[in-house]
Write a structure and sequence with these properties.
Blueprint (H helix, E strand, L loop, with lengths): L2 H14 L15 E5 L5 E5 L5 H11 L16 H6 L3 E4 L9 E4 L2 E7 L2 E5 L3 H4 L13 E5 L7 E5 L3 H4 L3 H6 L2 H9 L23
Antiparallel strand pairs: 1-2, 3-8, 4-5, 4-8, 5-6, 6-7
């Protein structure tokens, strides 16, 4: 399976499981989770909440392209340099493919094909920077429609199909925190940080 496809399927998992919410404060990985891809292979992904750039890094770390949290620490301010140094090339937002990274100042996402993206969008309920662990309203980490006009540029992982394949040797080279979790069959943990907020407020949703 191509690394771009692995990254896309990992993103889809994050968007469809409410154990993963939005947080800039607690964006560092917290535990691990073993998931099965469409071809039956398994990868172990970082658990816990995330923000937009950390989510992109996690997807491409699971695909064996980017390094760990501190090795390839990613935020939108350094994202271009990190991606370009790992084999990505800049492409037009009007010519994106499944698995391409989307960027605009202050936000990033993955293009998933068929006019959809996956993104870490906002904190729970009030759209803040943090909140209760996990996705509290189903839109913190979400699938959304793709509108090219919302984005400045995109990045495509530009290796040949052969080099893009994730081999058994590549899996063996993935950082030990993930390979050890794979062997032990570790599952995701869902920590709690504080009681759920109860005030009513509007959510700002990107369209």
């Amino acid at each position: 399976m191509l690394r771009r496809e692995i990254a896309a399927q990992v993103m889809e998992h994050y968007c469809n499981h409410d154990a993963h919410g939005y947080s800039q404060v607690h964006r560092a990985p917290n535990g691990t989770e073993l998931i099965t891809l469409s071809d039956g292979s398994q990868v172990t992904i970082a658990g816990g909440d995330t923000d937009c750039s950390e989510l992109v890094r996690r997807c491409y770390e699971a695909a064996g392209v980017l390094g760990g949290y501190w090795q390839d620490y990613l935020w939108t301010g350094n994202e271009a340099g990190v991606l370009l140094s790992h084999g990505f090339v800049e492409v037009s937002v009007h010519n994106v493919q499944r698995g391409d990274v989307l960027w605009v100042k202050g936000h990033t996402a993955l293009y998933l094909g068929d006019g959809y993206i996956g993104e870490a969008h906002h904190g729970d309920y009030c759209g803040g920077l943090d909140g209760v662990a996990g996705d509290q309203d189903g839109t913190e980490v979400r699938l959304a429609r793709y509108y090219p006009s919302h984005w400045t540029t995109a990045y495509h992982y530009d290796y040949s199909d052969e080099a893009d394949e994730l081999t058994d040797e590549d899996v063996a080279a993935i950082p030990s925190w993930r390979t050890s979790a794979r062997r032990s069959g570790a599952t995701a943990t869902r920590p709690t940080r504080r009681p759920m907020r109860t005030e009513s407020c509007a959510i700002s949703v990107m369209t």
